[in-house]
Amino acid sequence: MRILDRHVLTETALAGGMATGAFLFVMVAGNFLQQVAGAIATGRVDGAQGLELVVLLFPGVTPYALPMGMLAGVLMAFGRMGAQHEITAMKASGRGLVRIARPALLLAAALAVFSAWLNLEVAPAANDRYHRILSGSARDNPAAIVTPGQINRRIPGVILRAAAREGEVLRDFWLWRVDANGRLTQSIHAQEARLTATEDKDGKAFLRVALTEARMESRAPSEANRNAPAAFAMAKSTTFEFPAGTVFQDGGVTRKLRWLTLAELLEAMEHGWQVTPTTPPAEVARSRMQASTQLMSHLASAFSIFTLSLLAVPLAVRVGRSETFVNAVVALLVALSYYLLTEMAKSVKDPAFRPDLLVWVPNLIVLALAFVLLRRASRH
Prior knowledge:
Layout: H1 2-41, H2 47-83, H3 86-92, H4 97-134, E1 158-166, E2 169-178, E3 184-199, E4 205-218, E5 231-243, H5 262-271, H6 281-319, H7 324-346, H8 355-358, H9 361-378
Antiparallel strand pairs: 1-2, 2-3, 3-4, 4-5
Helix pairs in contact: 1-2, 1-4, 2-4, 2-6, 2-7, 4-6, 5-6, 6-7, 6-9, 7-9
């Protein structure tokens, strides 16, 4: 018996691993080409940050790849065993179809728990870090606010530009200071610049600019002295500080509800998500339901690994094909149908219709269909 269990588990794990890997590659590659590659090309992130962004993509896309990967893996494994009459031989030894599939279903259950952990703990932190880097969060790396070759006006009264950026170092750096009327009062050029985020004792944010091989040209700010000659100065190294305004507010990144951890979702379910003391009670109830729906959505998505795997067992026996392409097409059709139902359930926002419970409906439909097909498959 243990030999057969190991055989089923090995076949399912290998097929599911390959299918999940293929789906992960497609998802990560799509996000890389859409976002990361452009950020690297424009210089907003360097090579090391680009590699970190790719790594940070995996926790977020793995919970989406696992249901489809296990669905395709079970279809391929049981389809091959069915086509080669291995399942028939196991049934002849007295095993039912559910007993034959038990190792695969236990693997799916373990992966469901793993996926729930990714969704509720690992993915939120990875998503937050990913968007901070991609948006050029000044809090994490102040130099990232400057896109090489482009003018930066995020700091009031200061204009920044650099030809290139290597990590925290800006090359061929320009800094212009302008008055309230937009007139130039100071022009600074340096071979290198390093930006540092600082705060004073009152918590006010400042941007410290350390320059190397700097050349400065200053003009009198008053209208009466506008025609006076400009003053020039040179320095091997010098440092300036400017009030940073809102440039250090997380690089403009706004956290989304799906990025919250389990503890944060539970708190949002109790007190509401992004509400204030003046928020109307109806809106507070709506935000609490949104948090509850997001939590249930994470759990339902993880549980779908088990339900789709359970459905794949009788489907594979019924199709009885060992061809990878056929099983992949069947898996894709089933997965698309499941996700279509899921999106329909998520589209319901009215708390009166309990959207937090509706997100479980696709899993219940899959379970009911799986039980019907299992009963039919067990008769033969």
